Amino acid sequence: QEVYQYLLVETRDKVGLVTLNRPKALNALCSDLFSELNTVMAKFDEDQSIGAVVITGSEKAFAAGADIKEMRDSNYIDNYKTNFLGHWTQISKARKPVIAAVNGFALGGGCELAMMCDIIYAGTKAKFGQPEIKLGTIPGAGGTQRLTHAIGKSKAMEMVLTGSWNLNAEEAEKAGLVSKVFPPEQLVDEAVKTANVIAQHSQPMVQMAKEAVNQAYELSLASGLLYERRLFHSTFGTHDQREGMKAFVEKRTPKFEHK
Ligand code: CAA
């Protein structure tokens, strides 16, 4: 097992579990932390024994945002030349499903990282916010885009423009940002449990389903429906579709080839 400076990495059955581990800075997402996260994600994406990934933080903070101390002195041209934060988008390109298990603060880039994941579970003390405006800047990794898609314009505007209106776990669930809320100490186990359910299915089907859902954010309805239907057609070219439907008829658990 590799050793990382800012992450704890383990596997539980078919699930990769990544814990952000920079407690002194409330998991502020410095550049090296994100590079490590990208490395781990790429490894899990390649590892055929892994079916899904869970990303979590500590009970106090999932992540308190981009590292303010690291970026405070950077300037426009350097940001442009290095495409600052560009490397963050790799998480959203992961092919395997990723669940964010959010306890405590998910602020700024922390909220944005959670939203790059496919499913968000929250602990009862979670807090989601986009406080960048208070720092004299704006969200830079999806806070104006993914948040608006997730919770609608009025709530997203209020969060982004005031910087101080945060959603607690219950509000986040009601708004559709979060799918389930758990007591903090159960959160990671519940996320791993769901990830293991996902990992029991045919992996190519899981990935196609993820791709199709994600197209809902990119395409018109007609194009999205066509994309979905063509992928659906293609599943009939696989062993796992044959086996899944045969098993249903024979009233038994399917034995998927690609698990
Ligand atoms: N960057 C760097 N360091 C951070 C940090 C961040 N985003 N958030 C917290 N820390 C550090 C603090 O500076 C402090 O370090 P020291 O002990 O060396 O002073 C340590 O973590 C503990 O933090 P606090 O003492 O502030 O803890 P608290 O419990 O009093 O407050 C908090 C918690 C409300 C989350 C507060 O830390 C906070 O407001 N953090 C900043 C949140 C923020 O503005 N995030 C947005 C960042 S910008 C961004 O993310 C841009 C983007 O879109 C990508």
From TrEMBL:
Full protein name: Probable enoyl-CoA hydratase, mitochondrial
Organism encoding this protein: Tieghemiomyces parasiticus
Protein EC: 4.2.1.17
Xref: NCBIfam families: PRK05862.1
Similarity field: Belongs to the enoyl-CoA hydratase/isomerase family.
UniProt GO MF annotations: enoyl-CoA hydratase activity
One GO-annotated biological process of the protein: fatty acid beta-oxidation
Pfam families in UniProt: ECH_1 (PF00378)
Keywords: Fatty acid metabolism, Lipid metabolism, Lyase
InterPro entries to which the protein is assigned, alphabetical: ClpP/crotonase-like_dom_sf (IPR029045), Enoyl-CoA_hyd/isom_CS (IPR018376), Enoyl-CoA_hydra/iso (IPR001753), Enoyl-CoA_hydra_C (IPR014748)
Top-level EC class: lyase
A GO CC term assigned to this protein in UniProt: mitochondrion
Gene3D superfamilies reported for this sequence: 2-enoyl-CoA Hydratase, Chain A, domain 1, Lyase 2-enoyl-coa Hydratase, Chain A, domain 2
